[in-house]
User: Fold these one by one.
Assistant:
Number 1:
Amino acid sequence: MKNALVLVLMAGLLLAACVPAPAPVEQQPAQPQPVVEQPTQAPPPPPQPSPAPVIQPTAPQYAPFCQSAPAACQPPTVELRDNAFCVEKVPYAILAVPAGTTYESQDAGMECIDQATADGSLRITCHSKEGKELWSYNLKVCNAACSAPSLQMGTGQCPEGYGFDAANQCCAVPPAAGSEAGCIIYRVDIGGCPSG
């Protein structure tokens, strides 16, 4: 049995010697793994839906504001030069006022005309349409610089209660009804013409 065991061992060795050894496995070079670059910044967040815009009511755009007439306005000075200057037996009153003065007779029977003079003043000459003598009438005289400009109401260029001054391109408060800034009523006494 010993022999048999030796025989088996020998047979195994022989067999091992006859069988070719397995070929060594060639190692293939390692394939480089693709390098994935990591981003240095975080990707932007997805866009958020914007909220609906809030619609603000638009405030109306008005013209700038201004005064309708100068704040401190003085009436013109009136000087009676002659109240018995006669032409064909009709007495005339001659008044001197500053240039830019406006006037209005307060008597329908009185007629007035004006004329500029070399000294820059204005001469107002008035007489009765009927040739009356020795009587008095009223003449309204105003400083034209005090008069409020003509205001256009309801143009949409000014808030309610204001008028648009087209000459100055601004909004102003209209003068109060019956406002007489810079005006006076001057009493003119007409004299008589000499008879003869």
Note: The mean pLDDT is 78.
Number 2:
Amino acid sequence: MHTKTMEGLIGARTNMNLVNTPMRVYKEARRKGDLGAMERAMGYACDFAGRAEEYKEVADEGMKKESEEAKEKEKLELEEELEKKREERREENKEFTDNLGQAATVELSEEGQELLNEDLNPDGNDSSVPAADSAALREPVLYTSAGTAKPVETKPSISISM
């Protein structure tokens, strides 16, 4: 809590409590009919009420200043958070671009080449796959938006990038 706010709230409360004493004196003087005491008591009560109003203004200024400081602090925290996120993105992008140029290659052994050739070779006899399915596996097809199958012109290749 800002010091002006505390000072204003404490001062206003104290002066409002101090108004009670002259008001009691005023009420008693009125019962007795003492006009001079009534006027003096009302003067004191007005003074204390005026001071309470002044302290209220001080408290309002303090709260306004406190609000502005809180907004500034929140703005700074938000900027720091955004800067951290930007830095994280820069690092991620840097890592991505550093790794972008690197490509992994896969080499197949002779045994793997033979298996690949058997799958692609229409002369191979694979008894585990029915004849209709094996023909479909041998020739890669591309389906159009109309749902018709078109044979692919290029041979399949395997490429893995990291």
Note: Strands lie at 103-104, 141-143, 149-151, 160-161.
Number 3:
Amino acid sequence: MIIFSGCYIDVMHDAKLDPDNPFSIGFINITIENVNGDPINHAEIIINNDTIFTDSSGTIEEYEIINDTVFITINKDGYRSFHSDTIISTGVYLNFSISLNRIPVIQNAFLNSSVEFIRGIVDTLDYSVNIGLFITEYDGNNDLDSCYMSIFGEMVLLDFKYDSNGSIFYEKLFDENYELFSIFDIQGEQVSLKIADKSGERDSIDNLFLIRFVEYIPIVTNPTDGMEFFTPDTIRWECGIPPYNTFTLLRIFDSEGNCFINEILDINTNSFIIDSLFRSGEYEMIINIIDNYGNYAGRNVFFTVP
């Protein structure tokens, strides 16, 4: 008979907060906000191999984790991801207060030309090029660092126009006297638009082109400029038919800028019946010939209703 004595196997320390227990735990608290201090709910938080989501207050509280190296990744659609690694000790509470940066996104952009008839001692045509973009940046325009176009090796800053709850619009209008390059040279050239926020997030569009200048100016025969116009009556104009797809836009405004007529017409149409009475006052009528890319030519006429 063999007798065992004087030895035994140590019993494992089983208390969760016992530092001698290799499987003891620490705790993690995480609060997630945007740059404005608003909580971000339902943000995905990956802690090592576990995935959890923040509540309506943007937090998770007392998440238990075995003392070890901790890898944390935070994801939320429309935001820059957050990554961190740290070491947690037994009984330690790690508190993270994290601000996620929204990613600016170019939603839409345009590049088009206009040719407008200018009445004067010598009638002229006024040529211009307009470029603009609509950006979604819910951290606000103050978080945008730059917004510019790139062409011919030049970087041209666009002008901020408005910020409506994170929907931001930038624009730049070039006339024939622009100094850095001729607007006529833009036609057919690739134009790039680029934005960046203060955290370095970027977006760009690299395939903008100015297709053409529309040089088909309508000639209004009724009413002529400055005449008295009695409604109901028929508006008439003449215009050549461009060899590319276009349509006619007819608009009439009163002296306060209210639009009474706003009609899209077939390019072959050269008249429009007004079958209602206009109140007395001054009016402006604008007729534009517009192609499928937003390039247009136009003429305006001022008339009065007695």
Note: The CA atoms of residues 75 and 81 lie 5 Å apart.
Number 4:
Amino acid sequence: MKPQKLVLMFFLVGSLSAAAEDSAQGKKLPAATGWCVTKVDTLEVTSKPAARKKILVALGRGALLGTYEVKQADRRSWTRVRAIDPAKLAPVLGWVDSSQVESFPLGRFPADGELLKLLGGPYLEDFTAAHTSVARYLVRRAGDDPLLVCFLGSPISATSRLQVFARTGDGLSVGPYLEVPFADMQSGIRYIQARDLMGDGNECLITHEAFFAGPRNQGVNLVVRSISAKGFATLWKAPIEIQNLGSFPPKIQVLAPPERNVGAPGTITKGDVEFRPRGRVREPVWKGKVEFYVVGRDESVQSVTVEKVCRWDGSRFAPLQ
């Protein structure tokens, strides 16, 4: 069977049209001129075409944005874009450094309305369509066209969705998807990035996803997934934030190795992940701190630092714990 070209799409809630948003600010949105994709790890969308201006949102590598105009300021070229912050589920109109993005013609990718028609069902209803926005990401494939990745949701739905479409000839067909529940009145996914971790030209999808495991037990997981015609496969998942203060042990016990303490009852964990090269592969390195608390005290009474390299075994990365 011939491999299919996939397109992933993500709908975000809280998205009145960009034109309505700009009209409320006394601005008129110019006609779209094309698309651009982020080619740096972090792209800052600023309020004006200049450095040292208010940062409206920071997007990960692979974010695909609609473009509107280009200006020169601070001896740089700046591109006006429409972006969507996955955490706030809202469109943002701002400026990015043109050298940090790659440009595409307007006809390179289908309009939002074309994607909504493919989904059918409630997405064809006027109310849903008017309150639905599309945040897109490109995921590169070796020797093939990149995948178009979008995160899906609407204000009248309790979940958002990662939806797969397969390209067949000149059209697209609907493929597999993942449902992502909302968390604390926000999207379940707070951040999205595309990155080549295998060194073979095939990028993975990296997301920050909120979770709730019980009273005062919540946090954010970093999840690494690969994408194929069959759907998504989780290669690694580890928390980067956990507050587990719903219960406390009779006494503090620091476990060995130190990563066993991550997320333990009576602790707050904060960490970060660095993708460190080893040969062709970039392996996740979890680095952070676990703080231990006791009932009735606001400050931690003890802490332990953690650093662990999660090795690639040929099919997935080793777990943190």
Note: The longest helix spans residues 112-119.
